[in-house]
Amino acid sequence: MSGVTDVAPAAPAPVVRLRDTLRQGGWAICLLAVPLVVMEQLSREATNTLAPDIRDAFGISDALLVALAGFAGVALTLGGLPMAWLADRVRRKHLVVASASVGALSLVGAGLAQNTWQLFVAYTFTGLAAAYSNPVFGSLISDAYPVGGRGRVFSLQAMATPLGQAIGPVLAGAISGVAGDGDQAWRWAYLALAAPYAVLAVTAALFLKEPERGQADRLGLSEEDTRPHEPPVGTWTAFRRMMKVRTFLYMCLGIGVLGLALFTVPVQMSILLGDEYGFDAFTRGLIFSLTQIPVVGAMIYGGHQFDRTYRRRPERTVHIAGAAILTFGGLVVVGVWFQPIALLLACYVLASVCVGVALVAVSPLVASVTPFVLRAQAFALLPVFTFLMGGFFGSIFAGMISGSYGPRLALTIAVAVSAFIAGYLFLRGGRYLVHDIDAAAGKPPAAQEEP
Protein backbone atom coordinates (compact mmCIF):
# COMPACT_ATOMS: atom_id res chain seq x y z
CA MET A 1 0.00 0.00 0.00
CA SER A 2 1.62 3.21 -1.14
CA GLY A 3 1.34 6.75 0.14
CA VAL A 4 2.45 8.56 3.25
CA THR A 5 0.21 9.60 6.09
CA ASP A 6 0.87 12.04 8.88
CA VAL A 7 -0.65 9.72 11.47
CA ALA A 8 0.63 6.29 12.37
CA PRO A 9 -1.97 3.54 12.01
CA ALA A 10 -3.88 2.88 15.18
CA ALA A 11 -2.28 0.36 17.48
CA PRO A 12 -4.47 -2.61 18.40
CA ALA A 13 -6.94 -1.30 20.93
CA PRO A 14 -6.72 -2.98 24.35
CA VAL A 15 -9.90 -4.66 25.53
CA VAL A 16 -11.59 -2.40 28.08
CA ARG A 17 -14.04 -3.69 30.69
CA LEU A 18 -17.62 -2.58 30.16
CA ARG A 19 -17.72 -0.65 33.42
CA ASP A 20 -14.50 1.20 32.50
CA THR A 21 -15.82 1.80 28.97
CA LEU A 22 -18.98 3.41 30.30
CA ARG A 23 -17.04 5.41 32.86
CA GLN A 24 -14.67 6.81 30.21
CA GLY A 25 -17.35 7.67 27.69
CA GLY A 26 -20.10 8.57 30.13
CA TRP A 27 -23.06 6.50 31.23
CA ALA A 28 -25.71 8.82 29.84
CA ILE A 29 -25.29 7.97 26.14
CA CYS A 30 -25.69 4.22 26.67
CA LEU A 31 -28.39 4.54 29.34
CA LEU A 32 -30.43 6.74 27.00
CA ALA A 33 -29.71 4.90 23.73
CA VAL A 34 -31.08 1.58 25.00
CA PRO A 35 -34.48 2.74 26.37
CA LEU A 36 -35.02 5.14 23.47
CA VAL A 37 -34.50 2.35 20.93
CA VAL A 38 -36.80 0.16 23.02
CA MET A 39 -39.46 2.89 22.90
CA GLU A 40 -39.14 3.18 19.13
CA GLN A 41 -39.66 -0.56 18.84
CA LEU A 42 -42.55 -0.54 21.32
CA SER A 43 -44.44 1.96 19.17
CA ARG A 44 -44.08 -0.33 16.15
CA GLU A 45 -45.02 -3.45 18.09
CA ALA A 46 -48.08 -1.69 19.50
CA THR A 47 -49.32 -1.08 15.95
CA ASN A 48 -48.68 -4.71 14.97
CA THR A 49 -50.40 -6.08 18.07
CA LEU A 50 -53.41 -3.76 17.96
CA ALA A 51 -53.84 -3.85 14.18
CA PRO A 52 -57.21 -5.70 14.16
CA ASP A 53 -58.70 -3.27 16.71
CA ILE A 54 -57.41 -0.23 14.81
CA ARG A 55 -58.74 -1.64 11.53
CA ASP A 56 -62.19 -2.20 13.00
CA ALA A 57 -62.28 1.20 14.71
CA PHE A 58 -61.70 3.03 11.43
CA GLY A 59 -63.54 0.56 9.22
CA ILE A 60 -60.62 0.12 6.81
CA SER A 61 -59.13 -2.87 5.05
CA ASP A 62 -56.05 -4.82 6.10
CA ALA A 63 -54.19 -3.55 3.05
CA LEU A 64 -54.88 0.10 3.87
CA LEU A 65 -53.81 -0.31 7.48
CA VAL A 66 -50.58 -2.03 6.42
CA ALA A 67 -49.92 0.80 3.97
CA LEU A 68 -50.55 3.46 6.64
CA ALA A 69 -48.31 1.74 9.16
CA GLY A 70 -45.72 0.87 6.52
CA PHE A 71 -45.16 4.50 5.68
CA ALA A 72 -43.58 4.88 9.11
CA GLY A 73 -40.84 2.57 7.85
CA VAL A 74 -40.37 4.70 4.76
CA ALA A 75 -40.13 7.85 6.87
CA LEU A 76 -37.68 6.17 9.27
CA THR A 77 -35.42 4.97 6.46
CA LEU A 78 -35.36 8.05 4.25
CA GLY A 79 -35.42 10.43 7.21
CA GLY A 80 -32.08 9.05 8.39
CA LEU A 81 -30.18 10.84 5.60
CA PRO A 82 -31.21 14.41 6.52
CA MET A 83 -30.79 13.52 10.20
CA ALA A 84 -27.22 12.43 9.47
CA TRP A 85 -26.62 15.71 7.62
CA LEU A 86 -27.87 17.61 10.66
CA ALA A 87 -25.85 15.44 13.05
CA ASP A 88 -22.66 16.65 11.37
CA ARG A 89 -23.63 20.30 11.81
CA VAL A 90 -25.54 20.74 15.07
CA ARG A 91 -25.25 19.37 18.59
CA ARG A 92 -26.51 15.82 18.46
CA LYS A 93 -28.04 16.18 21.92
CA HIS A 94 -30.60 18.58 20.45
CA LEU A 95 -31.56 16.00 17.80
CA VAL A 96 -32.10 13.32 20.46
CA VAL A 97 -34.29 15.61 22.58
CA ALA A 98 -36.29 16.89 19.61
CA SER A 99 -36.81 13.41 18.14
CA ALA A 100 -37.92 11.90 21.45
CA SER A 101 -40.35 14.79 21.94
CA VAL A 102 -41.79 14.28 18.44
CA GLY A 103 -42.05 10.55 19.16
CA ALA A 104 -44.09 11.19 22.29
CA LEU A 105 -46.38 13.65 20.49
CA SER A 106 -46.85 11.30 17.54
CA LEU A 107 -48.03 8.52 19.88
CA VAL A 108 -50.51 10.94 21.44
CA GLY A 109 -51.62 11.83 17.92
CA ALA A 110 -52.10 8.15 17.03
CA GLY A 111 -54.11 7.61 20.21
CA LEU A 112 -56.38 10.59 19.51
CA ALA A 113 -56.70 10.16 15.71
CA GLN A 114 -60.27 10.44 14.49
CA ASN A 115 -59.77 9.54 10.83
CA THR A 116 -57.31 7.73 8.59
CA TRP A 117 -55.59 10.95 7.49
CA GLN A 118 -54.75 11.85 11.09
CA LEU A 119 -53.57 8.28 11.70
CA PHE A 120 -51.35 8.48 8.61
CA VAL A 121 -49.77 11.72 9.83
CA ALA A 122 -49.20 10.26 13.30
CA TYR A 123 -47.57 7.10 11.93
CA THR A 124 -45.37 9.16 9.60
CA PHE A 125 -44.09 11.27 12.47
CA THR A 126 -43.53 8.10 14.50
CA GLY A 127 -41.13 6.97 11.79
CA LEU A 128 -39.48 10.38 11.48
CA ALA A 129 -38.99 10.49 15.25
CA ALA A 130 -36.93 7.28 15.06
CA ALA A 131 -34.91 8.30 11.98
CA TYR A 132 -32.19 9.92 14.09
CA SER A 133 -31.35 6.74 15.99
CA ASN A 134 -28.79 5.07 13.72
CA PRO A 135 -26.80 8.13 12.58
CA VAL A 136 -26.95 10.06 15.86
CA PHE A 137 -26.41 7.31 18.42
CA GLY A 138 -24.01 5.51 16.06
CA SER A 139 -21.76 8.56 15.89
CA LEU A 140 -22.19 9.41 19.60
CA ILE A 141 -21.16 5.92 20.71
CA SER A 142 -18.25 5.87 18.27
CA ASP A 143 -16.98 9.25 19.48
CA ALA A 144 -17.51 8.72 23.20
CA TYR A 145 -16.38 5.18 23.98
CA PRO A 146 -12.86 3.70 23.60
CA VAL A 147 -12.34 1.43 20.61
CA GLY A 148 -11.48 -1.52 22.84
CA GLY A 149 -14.90 -1.49 24.51
CA ARG A 150 -17.40 0.08 22.16
CA GLY A 151 -18.36 -3.26 20.60
CA ARG A 152 -20.16 -4.09 23.85
CA VAL A 153 -21.85 -0.69 23.95
CA PHE A 154 -23.04 -1.20 20.39
CA SER A 155 -24.30 -4.65 21.38
CA LEU A 156 -26.36 -3.11 24.18
CA GLN A 157 -27.87 -0.67 21.71
CA ALA A 158 -28.53 -3.48 19.22
CA MET A 159 -30.18 -5.75 21.79
CA ALA A 160 -32.68 -2.97 22.55
CA THR A 161 -34.51 -3.89 19.33
CA PRO A 162 -35.24 -7.55 20.24
CA LEU A 163 -35.92 -6.43 23.81
CA GLY A 164 -38.62 -4.11 22.50
CA GLN A 165 -39.93 -6.90 20.29
CA ALA A 166 -40.09 -9.19 23.30
CA ILE A 167 -42.07 -6.91 25.61
CA GLY A 168 -43.94 -4.84 23.02
CA PRO A 169 -46.77 -7.23 22.09
CA VAL A 170 -47.39 -8.23 25.71
CA LEU A 171 -47.26 -4.64 26.99
CA ALA A 172 -49.50 -3.19 24.28
CA GLY A 173 -52.02 -5.99 24.71
CA ALA A 174 -51.97 -5.64 28.51
CA ILE A 175 -52.58 -1.89 28.41
CA SER A 176 -55.42 -2.34 25.95
CA GLY A 177 -56.89 -5.12 28.09
CA VAL A 178 -56.76 -3.03 31.27
CA ALA A 179 -58.43 -0.16 29.43
CA GLY A 180 -61.51 -2.32 28.84
CA ASP A 181 -63.27 -4.33 26.17
CA GLY A 182 -64.53 -1.38 24.12
CA ASP A 183 -63.53 -0.80 20.52
CA GLN A 184 -61.53 2.28 21.59
CA ALA A 185 -59.35 0.54 24.20
CA TRP A 186 -56.40 0.38 21.77
CA ARG A 187 -56.01 4.16 22.03
CA TRP A 188 -54.83 3.89 25.62
CA ALA A 189 -51.83 1.80 24.59
CA TYR A 190 -50.50 4.66 22.44
CA LEU A 191 -51.28 7.28 25.08
CA ALA A 192 -49.62 5.23 27.84
CA LEU A 193 -46.47 4.66 25.77
CA ALA A 194 -46.18 8.40 25.10
CA ALA A 195 -45.51 9.08 28.80
CA PRO A 196 -42.13 7.25 29.13
CA TYR A 197 -41.12 8.63 25.72
CA ALA A 198 -41.64 12.16 27.07
CA VAL A 199 -39.73 11.34 30.26
CA LEU A 200 -36.77 10.15 28.17
CA ALA A 201 -36.83 13.39 26.17
CA VAL A 202 -36.58 15.42 29.38
CA THR A 203 -33.86 13.12 30.72
CA ALA A 204 -31.81 13.56 27.53
CA ALA A 205 -32.15 17.33 27.80
CA LEU A 206 -30.83 17.26 31.36
CA PHE A 207 -28.10 14.61 31.31
CA LEU A 208 -26.90 13.84 27.78
CA LYS A 209 -23.45 15.25 27.05
CA GLU A 210 -21.92 15.84 23.63
CA PRO A 211 -18.52 14.15 23.14
CA GLU A 212 -15.90 15.76 20.93
CA ARG A 213 -16.16 14.45 17.38
CA GLY A 214 -13.54 11.78 16.78
CA GLN A 215 -12.54 11.78 20.46
CA ALA A 216 -12.19 8.00 20.88
CA ASP A 217 -10.36 7.60 17.56
CA ARG A 218 -7.75 10.21 18.46
CA LEU A 219 -7.12 8.55 21.82
CA GLY A 220 -6.53 5.25 20.01
CA LEU A 221 -3.84 6.58 17.66
CA SER A 222 -0.24 5.69 18.37
CA GLU A 223 0.85 9.25 17.58
CA GLU A 224 -0.74 12.64 17.99
CA ASP A 225 -3.31 13.39 15.31
CA THR A 226 -1.96 16.33 13.32
CA ARG A 227 -4.51 16.25 10.54
CA PRO A 228 -6.57 19.41 10.06
CA HIS A 229 -10.21 19.15 11.03
CA GLU A 230 -12.23 18.42 7.91
CA PRO A 231 -15.49 20.36 7.59
CA PRO A 232 -18.78 18.44 7.26
CA VAL A 233 -19.50 17.09 3.78
CA GLY A 234 -22.71 16.75 1.83
CA THR A 235 -24.73 13.56 1.56
CA TRP A 236 -23.73 12.78 -2.03
CA THR A 237 -20.05 13.44 -1.32
CA ALA A 238 -20.19 11.19 1.75
CA PHE A 239 -21.91 8.47 -0.27
CA ARG A 240 -19.26 8.55 -3.02
CA ARG A 241 -16.41 8.46 -0.52
CA MET A 242 -17.88 5.65 1.56
CA MET A 243 -18.54 3.51 -1.52
CA LYS A 244 -14.75 3.47 -2.03
CA VAL A 245 -14.29 1.82 1.38
CA ARG A 246 -14.44 -1.83 0.37
CA THR A 247 -15.44 -3.25 3.76
CA PHE A 248 -18.29 -0.76 4.07
CA LEU A 249 -19.42 -1.37 0.48
CA TYR A 250 -19.61 -5.14 0.94
CA MET A 251 -21.39 -4.77 4.29
CA CYS A 252 -23.95 -2.39 2.76
CA LEU A 253 -24.61 -4.79 -0.10
CA GLY A 254 -24.77 -7.71 2.33
CA ILE A 255 -27.15 -5.95 4.70
CA GLY A 256 -29.21 -4.77 1.74
CA VAL A 257 -29.65 -8.31 0.42
CA LEU A 258 -30.21 -9.66 3.94
CA GLY A 259 -33.10 -7.19 4.25
CA LEU A 260 -35.16 -9.57 2.12
CA ALA A 261 -34.94 -12.18 4.89
CA LEU A 262 -35.20 -9.70 7.77
CA PHE A 263 -38.48 -8.30 6.44
CA THR A 264 -39.89 -11.57 5.11
CA VAL A 265 -39.28 -14.07 7.92
CA PRO A 266 -41.46 -12.47 10.67
CA VAL A 267 -44.45 -11.94 8.38
CA GLN A 268 -44.30 -15.32 6.66
CA MET A 269 -43.65 -17.17 9.92
CA SER A 270 -46.73 -15.51 11.39
CA ILE A 271 -48.78 -16.61 8.37
CA LEU A 272 -47.38 -20.13 8.62
CA LEU A 273 -48.17 -20.44 12.33
CA GLY A 274 -51.65 -19.05 11.80
CA ASP A 275 -52.69 -20.89 8.64
CA GLU A 276 -51.09 -24.29 9.13
CA TYR A 277 -50.95 -24.62 12.92
CA GLY A 278 -54.05 -22.61 13.86
CA PHE A 279 -52.35 -20.31 16.38
CA ASP A 280 -54.31 -17.17 17.18
CA ALA A 281 -52.82 -13.69 17.33
CA PHE A 282 -52.08 -13.86 21.06
CA THR A 283 -50.25 -17.18 20.77
CA ARG A 284 -48.22 -15.99 17.80
CA GLY A 285 -47.31 -12.81 19.63
CA LEU A 286 -46.26 -14.79 22.69
CA ILE A 287 -44.09 -17.09 20.56
CA PHE A 288 -42.35 -14.15 18.88
CA SER A 289 -41.85 -12.42 22.23
CA LEU A 290 -40.28 -15.49 23.84
CA THR A 291 -38.08 -15.99 20.78
CA GLN A 292 -36.36 -12.67 21.43
CA ILE A 293 -35.14 -13.63 24.92
CA PRO A 294 -32.24 -15.83 23.73
CA VAL A 295 -31.52 -13.29 21.00
CA VAL A 296 -30.97 -10.59 23.62
CA GLY A 297 -28.59 -12.84 25.54
CA ALA A 298 -26.71 -13.81 22.38
CA MET A 299 -26.27 -10.19 21.35
CA ILE A 300 -24.84 -9.20 24.74
CA TYR A 301 -22.43 -12.13 24.63
CA GLY A 302 -21.63 -11.39 20.99
CA GLY A 303 -20.64 -7.83 21.83
CA HIS A 304 -18.26 -9.08 24.51
CA GLN A 305 -16.66 -11.56 22.13
CA PHE A 306 -16.47 -8.97 19.35
CA ASP A 307 -14.14 -6.76 21.39
CA ARG A 308 -11.85 -9.68 22.23
CA THR A 309 -11.74 -10.97 18.65
CA TYR A 310 -11.26 -7.49 17.21
CA ARG A 311 -8.24 -7.03 19.47
CA ARG A 312 -6.51 -10.18 18.15
CA ARG A 313 -7.64 -10.47 14.51
CA PRO A 314 -10.10 -7.81 13.35
CA GLU A 315 -10.94 -9.57 10.08
CA ARG A 316 -12.29 -12.56 12.01
CA THR A 317 -15.19 -10.44 13.26
CA VAL A 318 -16.42 -10.06 9.68
CA HIS A 319 -15.88 -13.77 9.00
CA ILE A 320 -17.88 -14.72 12.11
CA ALA A 321 -20.71 -12.40 11.03
CA GLY A 322 -20.71 -13.91 7.53
CA ALA A 323 -20.71 -17.46 8.93
CA ALA A 324 -23.59 -16.58 11.28
CA ILE A 325 -25.63 -15.27 8.34
CA LEU A 326 -24.99 -18.46 6.35
CA THR A 327 -26.00 -20.57 9.36
CA PHE A 328 -29.16 -18.48 9.75
CA GLY A 329 -30.04 -19.21 6.14
CA GLY A 330 -29.41 -22.93 6.48
CA LEU A 331 -31.49 -23.24 9.65
CA VAL A 332 -34.48 -21.44 8.13
CA VAL A 333 -34.35 -23.21 4.77
CA VAL A 334 -34.17 -26.64 6.42
CA GLY A 335 -36.23 -25.95 9.53
CA VAL A 336 -39.23 -24.45 7.77
CA TRP A 337 -40.05 -27.84 6.24
CA PHE A 338 -40.23 -29.63 9.59
CA GLN A 339 -43.83 -30.51 10.38
CA PRO A 340 -43.49 -30.95 14.19
CA ILE A 341 -43.93 -27.50 15.69
CA ALA A 342 -41.19 -28.08 18.27
CA LEU A 343 -38.55 -28.69 15.57
CA LEU A 344 -39.81 -25.78 13.49
CA LEU A 345 -39.62 -23.35 16.40
CA ALA A 346 -36.24 -24.70 17.55
CA CYS A 347 -34.74 -23.94 14.15
CA TYR A 348 -36.42 -20.52 14.13
CA VAL A 349 -34.99 -19.61 17.55
CA LEU A 350 -31.48 -20.74 16.60
CA ALA A 351 -31.71 -18.86 13.30
CA SER A 352 -32.80 -15.70 15.13
CA VAL A 353 -29.82 -16.04 17.48
CA CYS A 354 -27.45 -16.37 14.52
CA VAL A 355 -28.72 -13.26 12.76
CA GLY A 356 -28.57 -11.38 16.07
CA VAL A 357 -24.90 -12.31 16.49
CA ALA A 358 -24.19 -11.13 12.94
CA LEU A 359 -25.96 -7.80 13.36
CA VAL A 360 -24.05 -7.05 16.58
CA ALA A 361 -20.85 -6.77 14.54
CA VAL A 362 -22.17 -4.31 11.97
CA SER A 363 -22.17 -1.04 13.92
CA PRO A 364 -18.69 -1.34 15.48
CA LEU A 365 -17.29 -2.40 12.11
CA VAL A 366 -18.83 0.63 10.42
CA ALA A 367 -17.31 2.82 13.13
CA SER A 368 -13.87 1.24 12.64
CA VAL A 369 -13.64 1.83 8.87
CA THR A 370 -15.32 5.25 8.78
CA PRO A 371 -13.57 8.60 9.31
CA PHE A 372 -15.49 10.41 12.01
CA VAL A 373 -16.44 13.23 9.64
CA LEU A 374 -18.44 10.71 7.56
CA ARG A 375 -19.64 8.47 10.38
CA ALA A 376 -23.17 9.76 10.95
CA GLN A 377 -23.96 9.56 7.25
CA ALA A 378 -22.42 6.08 7.01
CA PHE A 379 -24.76 4.84 9.75
CA ALA A 380 -27.71 6.44 7.92
CA LEU A 381 -26.89 4.63 4.67
CA LEU A 382 -27.23 1.12 6.12
CA PRO A 383 -31.03 1.20 6.65
CA VAL A 384 -31.48 2.65 3.16
CA PHE A 385 -29.75 -0.37 1.65
CA THR A 386 -31.72 -2.73 3.91
CA PHE A 387 -35.10 -1.22 3.11
CA LEU A 388 -34.75 -0.43 -0.59
CA MET A 389 -32.57 -3.34 -1.76
CA GLY A 390 -34.23 -6.21 0.08
CA GLY A 391 -36.88 -5.10 2.49
CA PHE A 392 -39.43 -3.28 0.33
CA PHE A 393 -39.28 -5.07 -3.00
CA GLY A 394 -38.28 -8.38 -1.45
CA SER A 395 -41.32 -8.46 0.82
CA ILE A 396 -43.60 -7.92 -2.17
CA PHE A 397 -41.86 -10.73 -4.05
CA ALA A 398 -42.14 -13.10 -1.08
CA GLY A 399 -45.78 -12.17 -0.61
CA MET A 400 -46.54 -13.11 -4.21
CA ILE A 401 -44.90 -16.52 -3.75
CA SER A 402 -46.72 -17.05 -0.44
CA GLY A 403 -50.07 -16.19 -1.98
CA SER A 404 -49.62 -18.75 -4.75
CA TYR A 405 -47.57 -21.53 -3.14
CA GLY A 406 -47.70 -20.97 0.62
CA PRO A 407 -45.36 -19.50 3.24
CA ARG A 408 -42.95 -22.46 3.41
CA LEU A 409 -41.82 -22.06 -0.19
CA ALA A 410 -41.78 -18.27 0.16
CA LEU A 411 -39.47 -18.55 3.17
CA THR A 412 -37.25 -21.10 1.44
CA ILE A 413 -36.70 -19.02 -1.69
CA ALA A 414 -36.42 -15.64 0.01
CA VAL A 415 -34.06 -16.75 2.77
CA ALA A 416 -31.93 -18.96 0.53
CA VAL A 417 -31.29 -16.12 -1.91
CA SER A 418 -30.91 -13.48 0.78
CA ALA A 419 -28.80 -15.20 3.43
CA PHE A 420 -26.38 -17.03 1.18
CA ILE A 421 -25.59 -13.98 -0.95
CA ALA A 422 -25.31 -11.77 2.16
CA GLY A 423 -23.03 -14.25 3.89
CA TYR A 424 -20.75 -14.41 0.87
CA LEU A 425 -20.57 -10.61 0.66
CA PHE A 426 -19.59 -10.33 4.32
CA LEU A 427 -16.88 -12.97 3.93
CA ARG A 428 -15.64 -11.22 0.83
CA GLY A 429 -15.50 -7.86 2.58
CA GLY A 430 -13.45 -9.24 5.46
CA ARG A 431 -10.28 -9.30 3.38
CA TYR A 432 -10.27 -5.48 3.21
CA LEU A 433 -10.97 -4.72 6.86
CA VAL A 434 -7.44 -4.17 8.20
CA HIS A 435 -6.57 -1.98 5.22
CA ASP A 436 -9.72 0.10 5.69
CA ILE A 437 -9.16 0.51 9.44
CA ASP A 438 -5.68 1.91 8.79
CA ALA A 439 -7.00 4.12 6.01
CA ALA A 440 -9.75 5.56 8.23
CA ALA A 441 -7.16 6.35 10.89
CA GLY A 442 -4.56 7.83 8.60
CA LYS A 443 -5.81 8.93 5.19
CA PRO A 444 -9.07 9.77 3.39
CA PRO A 445 -11.03 6.80 1.99
CA ALA A 446 -10.74 8.30 -1.49
CA ALA A 447 -7.02 7.53 -1.50
CA GLN A 448 -7.38 3.84 -0.75
CA GLU A 449 -5.89 1.28 -3.08
CA GLU A 450 -6.50 -2.41 -3.58
CA PRO A 451 -4.61 -4.23 -0.81
What CATH calls the topology of the largest domain is Growth Hormone, Chain: A
The chain-level mean pLDDT equals 83
User: Total helix count?
Assistant: 17
Integer count of domains: 2
Portion in helices: over 70%
What's the CATH superfamily of the largest domain, by name?
Answer: MFS general substrate transporter like domains
Specify the biggest β-sheet: none
Explained architecture:
This protein has 451 residues and is mainly α. It folds into 2 domains: 14-213, MFS general substrate transporter like domains (Growth Hormone, Chain: A, Up-down Bundle); 235-446, Growth Hormone, Chain: A (Up-down Bundle). 79% of the residues lie in helices and 0% in strands. The protein contains 17 helices and no strands. It has helices spanning 18-25, 27-58, 62-87, 92-112, 116-130, 133-144, 150-179, 186-207, 215-220, 235-242, 246-275, 281-312, 314-335, 341-369, 375-405, 407-429, 433-442. Helix 7 (150-179) packs antiparallel against helix 8 (186-207). The longest helix has 32 residues, at 27-58. The protein is globular and about 60 Å long. The protein starts with 17 loop residues before the first helix and ends in a 9-residue tail after the last helix.
